[in-house]
Amino acid sequence: xxxxxxxxxxxAQPNRRCQHEESSHEKGAAATPLRSWQRVLWYWHRGAQxxxxxxxxxxxxxxxxxxxxxxxxxxxxxxxxxxxxxxxSITLWSLQNRCWQRRRKxxxxxxxxxxxxxxxxxxxxxxxxxxxxxxxxxxxxxxxxHETDAATxxxxxxxxxxxxxxxDDNLLLHRTTPLHRAVRRKDFFAHGLFIVYNRYExxxxxxxxxxxxxxxxxxxxxxxxxxxxEVVRDPNYLVRETGDSPLHxxxxxxxxxxxxxxxxxxxxxxxxxxxxxxxIHILSMARRYLSDSLRIFIEFCDKTVEYKPPHVNxxxxxxxxxxxxxxxxxxxxxxxxxxxxxxRGANPNKANAEGLTPLHVISEIGxxxxxxxxxxxxxFKINLEMQKTVQVDAVDKFNRTPLQFAVVNFSRHMVNIxxxxxxxxxxxVFPTENHFTKRLDTYCVRVWRxxxxxxxxxxxxxxxxxxxxxxxLDQNDALTIMKLFAKYELxxxxxxxxKILNDDEEFAIEVKQFMVKPSLSFYDLIQxxxxxxxxVFTFTDYFKFSHSCIFDxxxxxxxxxxxxxxxxxxxKFFRSWALESFVKLTHYRLPMECCSMIIEExxxxxxxxxxxxVTSQNxxxxxxxYK
Length: 627
Hints:
single chain, mainly alpha, disordered N terminus, about 625 residues, repeat
């Protein structure tokens, strides 16, 4: 529970004895040095300005974490203490913002009090950077305006880094230091802490087995790594919790110089961590192309005779090879990585634990025409040059093919490429509604921008590509697509957009000025009838527009615009299937022309209900026939 205290204007002096000590001397009792926590509580009750959190066994639970602040409000928290040589995890600096500007400067004597009465590892790493800088500048410890330099100077002023020793004078190195905390939080001044902890024989290890040597590899400090390695003498020294080697860490953080140095010191390029990830897996998972690190890694492994070539087909615990991971990133930067893996002998048909091949991954993860088309073309082109046959109809453990993944992902280009490469359309089974919804619920809804328009344009475009190649869509397949429109609310309410354009003049002007094509404004597009819109705006136009659409779906006007486009792009699909169903529903009593005229006046939601009614009637008839 938070208790707000008003600090008095009196300032505590570190060398001044407390009232308890004075009274003891007056009574003639032997002077007993007070514990640091007792002194802090005394200063607190006296309204001291300088009180820091501490670690001490006798105080089981107390309101602590008080910070330096002149006349200001401070917060105190309940905290459970334990005996330790270092503070477990202190969160200092809970000053109220309204009082921050009135904070008085800290005097050096206060810093001396903290330095002499508390442990040396007082961790200020949790301070917000602006307040941390203001604090240390007010101390007069550093005149630098650069945050990293200022933090380094202050911590060097506060910490002498004298490691504890046991009775045999052996260094006690198993403890968490501010450097460990800073590295795990990726704090801005972690580099400066390497200056504080500059004794290479003191390679501190935290509770997870992360050492200062590993931290230096993560932060690319080649000289520090070199110094630690002279003591450790093992370039494959692992982090106990994860099994990561120094090479894993250097590659993950793209520290090319450290990568080169470790390889020159015979770091193992094929060593796997506890997840089964090798250094080449790490490179394959990079979200950006690690040009320097990858180049150094490849050149060194290819040119050094005593090293075995990297295992490009090594599998992690999930059965993924580096090629699986490189395909899964879906970034243009990884195209070069895919090419290098394939040319170094990566197996294009190797399946992971779920039975997914790299081709499944391309078909599933693709986000946009560019990724699908270019990456798939690179994949098939290089395999053709390497004279490797790609199994385009490979199935996973659920008997799903890459073509099914491409359809579920609405990847029109990927569907065409797979069919060009010989995918068997005669045995193709249209994905189920569950397959679609599982994919959409777990990925697209959260990630895709303008998801509704992409779903509408992509689903109809994929169906058209399949039909052009000879696939015959049946009523159940069409109803599966329609159910997606209903589930994800892609149906337009006819009066919404007209009402918005009439009520919101500013938005109407904006719509008229917004061009969807060089000669077509969005206002002109929404005024067209669906049949007329089909002639001037194709599926490809809708899908491209979905990647650049500026309408905010969270607002009513943006939502109405998106749903209007969803209605238009899918109108032909709904009309063709609903017309046949409507004729069946009327038992062929109306002429086709009359049925067509009626269909034209209905919305897509009405057409969906017609198809749904006919399907339900067919199921009922089959049950009656069975009886």
